[in-house]
Amino acid sequence: MRFDYFEPATLEEAGELLREGKGARKPLAGGTDIVIQLRRRVVRTQGLVNLKRIPELWGWAREPGEGLRLGACTPMRDLETAAAVGERFPSITEALRVVGSLQLRNIASVGGNLCNASPSADTAPPLVALGATASVRTPESRLETVPVENFFEGPGASVLGTGGLLLAVEVPEPAPCTGDAFERFTPRSAMDIAIASAAAAVTLDAAGERVAAARIALGAVAPTPVRALRAEEFVLEKELTPDVVARAGRAAMDECQPIDDIRGSAAYRRELVGILVRRVLRQAMERARARSETETV
Amino acid sequence: MRQRYALRVNGETRETEAEPHESLLDVLRENLRLTGSKKGCNEAECGSCTVLLNGRPVVSCLVLVPDAVGRDIVTIEALAGDGTPHPVQRQMVEQGGVQCGYCTPGMIMSAYALLQENPHPTDEEIRFAISGNICRCTGYGKIVKAVRAAAEEVGRAAS
User: On the CB side of B68, how many CA atoms lie within 13 Å of its CA?
Assistant: First the structure.
């Protein structure tokens, strides 16, 4: 696993190093995916461009009323342990807590989880459900904002292409009476990869009864993380009764496109989607209700 | 290309030569002869290579050596640096938390990091803290008991 190694101090330098590499160099953040891929020789590269010494890519900020902004290289564990993140965006914390191990999350970054573009990336469904956007630097050095739901292009492929960089992820402040939740299914409770996952963000009306807005995202059941648009549309303006939640789960089962692989069959994944969507909708609704109570007091 | 690296390990600056693609684990074991950290899976699955980087437990098999430059590295060797075992180490022995011993250094580093941050953990917090350390011998019960006993011991010593 030999390669050239670069440690740029600025984004400009990093962009230049990647451009010079003409696709033969890869950006490195936490390295918890790419170092393993290089060792297994499933990926080859002539050079790694380590982004972790670039200050702009570090840290996160949460101002009440202004959402959450996190630098692409911020270690997962920093966000996982941040009370300010967990109390407003519990689905993000729930997803982070199940990625690899604690010793891995002290290295792995949220940006890297997205850029690796695995269909099962745990941080993707909550960010998609919460309507997060990605700040991207294109290979031509332009700055662009891309909704996270449009960031992925297929397994291992994103809008970044070969020379682009993910700079930050921004999660907008949720509307009042909004709750969110994430669930995934794995046979083991630690060190496992999702067979299927789901996240939901649900906004209730002022009475705390009917759904005013809902976003549902699924992981590991399509070539990229995807939204369950028909399920979202189905719950709109309805009360989330057990029957409505079950029917939303069935709608999501019909619109996902899972595959058979070593972790589970397509049919099993589809079945799981129905269950996970029911669970996250219920949990998101309960959190939205709890929030509407505290917000009106 | 081989390069010189100065690493701050267990409070000392150690100079060594390595390729940038080498892992911190390999450099600790092969170059610096700190063989307490074990190489189990080399893919972040098992946790036997756990060391602290700036106080936080990490799997050293996935840390490239240039990324460890400028950071404080603490390995299992530092815990009994003065010849006296740390309470976590002693309790692992006393409570029967050690069988084959391969996971033990990593397990102890995770537990040590937990107690630094949270001196009075619940059993659930202990289990969460060591959930990235695989033990195929003990069934974990005695390890959890050892960490709990070590926490009590550290607490008593502090009061």
Answer: 39
Distance CA A134, CA A255 (A): 25
According to DSSP, residue B28 is labeled I
Say whether pLDDT at B17 is over 60: yes
Is the domain of B57 the same as that of B122? no
For residue B141, give the CATH number of its domain.
Answer: 1.10.150.120
DSSP H helices in chain A: 11-21, 34-39, 76-80, 83-88, 90-96, 102-105, 110-115, 124-129, 229-235, 242-255, 266-296
Cβ-defined contact of A50 to B67 (cutoff 8 Å): yes
In chain B, which among 37-56 make CB contacts under 8 A with chain A? 42-45, 47, 50, 53, 56
Of all residues in chain B, the one with the smallest CA distance to A101 is: B132
- Residues on chain B touching A3 (C-beta within 8 angstroms): 21
Residue ranges of B 80-109 with Cβ closer than 8 A to chain A: none
Residues 185-224 of A with CB under 8 A from B: 189-191
C-alpha to C-alpha distance for B51 and A163, rounded to whole angstroms: 33
Alpha-carbon separation of residue A100 from A186, A191, A197, B34 (angstroms): 12, 5, 15, 26
A9 inside 8 A of chain B by CB: no
Q: Which domains does chain A have, with CATH numbers?
A: 4-50 (3.30.43.10), 55-171 (3.30.465.10), 178-296 (3.30.390.50)
Question: What would the pLDDT profile of B20-79 be if each residue is shown by its tens digit?
Answer: 999 999 999 999 999 999 999 999 999 999 999 999 999 999 999 999 999 999 999 999
| Nearest C-alpha in A relative to B19 | A2
pTM of the model: 0.95
This complex has an ipTM of 0.95
Give A48-67 pLDDT, tens digit per residue: 999 999 999 999 999 888 99
CATH code of the domain containing B25: 3.10.20.30
Q: What is the pLDDT of residue A3?
A: 85
What are the φ/ψ torsions at residue A77 (nearest 5 degrees)? Answer: -65, -30
pLDDT tens for B106-132 read 999 999 999 999 999 999 999 999 999
**Cβ distance of A5 and B21 shorter than 8 Å:** yes
SS3 of residue A39 by DSSP: helix
